[in-house]
Hints:
- By secondary structure, the chain is an all-alpha fold.
- The chain contains ten helices and no strands.
- It folds into two domains: 1-92, Rna Polymerase Sigma Factor, Chain: A; 93-191, Arc Repressor Mutant, subunit A.
- The relative contact order is 0.10.
Amino acid sequence: MSDPVEQLVGQAQAGNYEAASQLVAQFYKRIFAYLRRLCAHDEDAADLTQQTFARLWVALPSYAGRSSLSTWLHGMAHHVYVDWRRVRNFTQPQTDEWWATCTTPNPSPFEEAAERDLAHQLYRAVEQLPEDTRQTVHLRYYQGLTLAETAEVLGIASSTVKYRLREALGFLRSRMAEPKQPIPHTLNRAS
Length: 191
């Protein structure tokens, strides 16, 4: 166990509360940012983040290291979010003001590649994607997970991740070229 995160996991599994606190400190912002982008409200994201870490502490003894802790934790966050959506059963579009307050530890690929207003247009276009495709985009591009990690979190094949990303990128290119285009019927299917 030469990886510092894996060392912390081992210590936390052995009951070391300091190690557990360090794991929370290391992953809280990333999980909160992921959930905030998905649910659009700070309070909901904070609640979902707490639920995710509560699930982590219950499941931590069973963590066997078959995937990275980050992937495992993002998978838990994804399932917490899906459960929350199932109960709430609604969608709310994010406002420009909300997107202006979104911060992550690392700049998104879109912010590095374009001006701020172009990034906002792109974020709005991403929100028009079907739920399954949008979650794939969030995990891969906003959270920076690999294709394999994204597939593992969503419980799908890597080829499905690639297909969703290809579909999303095609849609986003067309929306950015002509913003008033309607959503293609292939992307307008139920999630």
